[in-house]
Design a protein that fits this description.
There is one protein chain. The protein is α/β, with parallel strands linked by helices. It is about 40% helix and about 25% strand. It folds into 2 domains: about 35 residues; about 240 residues, Rossmann fold (3-Layer(aba) Sandwich), CATH 3.40.50. Strands 1-2-4-3-6-7-10-11 form an 8-stranded mixed β-sheet, with helices on both faces. α4 packs across α5. The longest helix has 23 residues.
Length: about 280
């Protein structure tokens, strides 16, 4: 009899535990968690952005999340939600001539520089926004978005506390001679590749003039997380390795993670690393 009672008690406890686990994972509880974060499409002057944040009335540190070449702001929403759930106000802009924007096509590095300069416009706007504290600024981006991150951290008006450029390079010169550097794009007209030498020479000169690596010492007070794929041949790791070699002499807060078995792609672990890094360094 005692044995049967003991078995019945164990079964009852297991039933209660399984019910609790089920309740924690029900669709209703999941939806409730997601709806705590607001994502809104809006414009800052003529720049289309998505604002993602927890609407609790408190001013928040701001993170800019920038998409890659031939992509659009919506592609960053997964990372934006992860960051917003940690208490950040996240801004995901369409890069120049990308997404819903209608500008004429430019070469890759021209787009990088144009978009970087627009960050001053964005941050001037959010400096007047009670929801945001622009003195607590982080920037991250993928591929072209990482190049924009590097460029703004070196040349922008606002000083980021932390940057996390991913599958990217600060050494724009490494792109010279590649089809990528000669790519001319707009969402309105699509992609072409420069073939005539006059255009190619102009592009190459623009790349050299605007490469942030030559001014890397301006990054001495910025926490930096760089992540690149070990198998990436599209944007290889030469530039981030060069920066990781020279910058720690004046800035000890530099990390380079080379992700194994990874080409030119953003893996979930890389996003998780960005979230953890921003939580540690933008507060």
């Amino acid at each position: 009899m005692k044995k049967r009672i003991g078995i019945a008690i164990i079964i009852g406890l297991l039933f209660i535990l399984s019910s609790f686990i089920y309740m924690e994972g029900t669709p209703d509880s999941f939806n409730q968690k997601v709806t705590e974060v607001t994502s809104t499409n809006t414009y800052v002057q003529d720049i289309p952005v998505i604002e993602t944040y927890r609407n609790d009335g408190k001013p928040k540190p701001i993170i800019i999340v920038q998409h890659g070449f031939k992509n659009r702001k919506e592609s960053t929403i997964g990372l934006a939600i992860q960051l917003a759930e940690k208490g950040f106000f996240v801004v995901s802009p369409d890069a120049y001539a990308h997404g819903e924007r209608k500008e004429d096509p430019l070469s890759l590095v021209e787009i990088i520089v144009k978009t970087s300069k627009e960050y001053d416009v964005l941050l001037d706007h959010y400096a007047e926004d009670h929801r945001v504290n622009v003195n607590k600024l982080g920037i991250t981006g993928f591929s072209m978005g990482g190049c924009i991150t590097f460029h703004y951290a070196v040349y922008g008006k606002y000083h980021p506390m932390a940057i996390a450029p991913t599958i990217s390079t600060p050494y724009f010169e490494q792109l010279i001679g590649s089809k990528l550097s000669r790519s001319i794009y707009s969402s309105k007209q699509g992609l072409t590749v420069a073939e005539d030498m006059d255009t190619i020479n102009k592009i190459d000169n623009f790349i050299i003039i605007n490469s942030p690596f030559k001014d890397y010492k301006k990054l001495k007070n910025v926490d930096i997380l760089m992540q690149n794929g070990k198998l990436d041949r599209y944007v290889n790791s030469d530039g981030v390795k060069m920066l990781n070699h020279v910058l720690p002499e004046i800035n000890p807060n530099v990390q380079l993670i080379m992700v194994p078995r990874t080409k030119h792609q953003v893996r979930p672990v890389m996003k998780d690393n960005i979230v953890e890094f921003m939580c540690q360094n933008v507060k």
